[in-house]
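Intended use. Records like the one below are meant for learning the mapping from a protein sequence to its folded structure. Do not use them to infer anything beyond what is encoded.
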Amino acid sequence: MKISKQRLLQILKEEMDEPSKLQSGTTSAAAMRAADIKRVDQTDDETTPQESGILNQIENFLAQLAATPGVDLAQKRSVLERILKLLQQNVAGNAKGEQNA
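Structure written out for the chain above:
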């Protein structure tokens, strides 16, 4: 199978820009609080109260999961990245399709 240089460059660019990849690192409690405040400030008219509720539920679920004894989210990184990629494809992909329609 042959791939053109242009297509290969496009694939590489998409992989480098992939927002569904989790960054490695640690975060302090203070940094988490600051990130929460920043996220709230970033919401705009496009974010409905229902969407904010969904975001809160997901965040709470992940926090409770991480606090569960014996659960190490870092060891499940690949599974979490696949879940993020599925969300991106299904939710953002549908939004792009709606805009093109």
